[in-house]
Automatic annotation (TrEMBL):
GO terms for molecular function: endonuclease activity; hydrolase activity. This is Endonuclease YncB, thermonuclease family. Residues 54-179 form the TNase-like domain. Keywords: Endonuclease, Hydrolase, Nuclease. InterPro entries: SNase_OB-fold_sf (IPR035437), Staphylococal_nuclease_OB-fold (IPR016071). SMART domains: SNc. It comes from Salegentibacter flavus.
Amino acid sequence: MINLKPLLLSLLIILSACKRTVSERNTSPHSNVEENIIGSEAEKDDENLPSGKIALKGKIMCIVDGDKAELLYKGEFPLMIRFEHIDAPEKRGSQAYGNKAKRILSDLCFGQEVTLITDGEFDMGGRIIGELINEEGVNVNKEMVRLGYAWHYKKYSDDISYDKLEKEARNNKRGLWQEPNPIAPWDFR
């Protein structure tokens, strides 16, 4: 059976790269598209990765809100990321803690060379879904929940480690859990 996820990931990256003008593409120092998009075998077949996962390395160039960011992959391919397992307060609409969640995420990874662990899935907004590991080796997704600036997004995740982190943050009244009844982003939307 053919695994289409890496192919779809490659296609999305190619389409993102196509936004550049023809003259920019013609002057690119990279001529081997497959090598630049697919990455090295170490990225695809890292023995430490769970089955079906790949590691994309790049630099975080933009923080959108508490659970979305832009990764510059291979120094030239921008990828929008949706952080897997979590949902953070909305910056749009001025949800309580939305701006703070964005600042915390920025402190954890902005400008850093990071690794995105993904299975190549995309959300409906065209963002690649994954867990981000920062330069210090911290799982940023889990840290956002541990610090109390994101919920475990149980609708799309059954990873109990996130549930435990959320309960710990609630019990210790960290971040948004300082409020008596914080509104979850899926209810705010």
